[in-house]
Amino acid sequence: GENVEQHPSTLSVQEGDSAVIKCTYSDSASNYFPWYKQELGKRPQLIIDIRSNVGEKKDQRIAVTLNKTAKHFSLHITETQPEDSAVYFCAASPPNFGNEKLTFGTGTRLTIIP
Amino acid sequence: ETGVTQTPRHLVMGMTNKKSLKCEQHLGHNAMYWYKQSAKKPLELMFVYNFKEQTENNSVPSRFSPECPNSSHLFLHLHTLQPEDSALYLCASSLALAGGTSSYNEQFFGPGTRLTVL
Fold this sequence. Notes:
The complex is a heterodimer of chains A (114) and B (118). Chain A is 0% helix and 54% strand. Chain A has strands spanning 4-7, 10-14, 19-25, 32-38, 45-51, 56-59, 62-67, 72-77, 86-92, 103-104, 108-113. The N and C termini of chain A lie far apart (41 Å). By secondary structure, chain B is mostly beta strands. In chain B, strands 2, 4, 5, 6, 9, 10 and 11 form a 7-stranded mixed sheet that branches. Chain B has a 4-stranded antiparallel sheet with strand order 1-3-8-7, with no helix packed on it. Chain A binds chain B through residues 4, 32, 34, 42-46, 49, 51, 89, 91, 93, 95-107, and chain B through 4, 31, 40-45, 48, 50, 55-56, 90, 94, 96-107, 109-112.
């Protein structure tokens, strides 16, 4: 089955600086890679996702890059703000025709230092 | 209520108890999921239901028994649990396509049930 590794487990960044979180996956058939944000005491929420036919996707201050050859993908947050403090989870899914079987990474606790 | 709701939000039970977790989605979705979230571990997929049919059982012990009476409701029946089963149990739903079409639709999570097994 799929195995997703995520690094780092914790990350502290000065407000305004950029943050990068990296994930690797093992199943070359995986072709969907979402990122979820979970604020303290709240539910995970999708913030961005990428499909394997795309190398990069951007949405305002967040971007995701995918390297299918190396089987890794990364989340980039620029101009970080205090509200970006949360736990971020990457995930990977192979084609599954109707329901998503997501394998999650262990999470990165991001702290933005004012 | 909108989105995905879960009850109860907190549950403390003994190892010999029987209890049930409930999830309800108000999004018109047709796929529902149970996840287990433990400290310092990845979110673990437990069960997937697609159009009320169970399509995934991720090697979950039989002391966890899911039930999906319709596309809007999902239950997780618990019996003779162990202390290591203490965790946050999250329900999610998504809009799945039938007929063999590959789809990747956002999963919407509920707030979770914090379960403590004594």
